[in-house]
Amino acid sequence: MIIKCIEDIGYKTRYQRGVIMVKYTWFKENVPDNLKVRQVYGIVFTNDKRVLLKIDDNKYELTGGKPQYNETYEETLKREYIEEINVFLSDIYYLGYLLIEEDNISYVQVRMIAKVEKINELKPDKDNGKLYQRKLVNIKNIKKYLNYSGVAGNKMIDDAINLANIVYNFSYQNELEEFV
Question: How many domains does the chain have?
Answer without folding.
Answer: 1
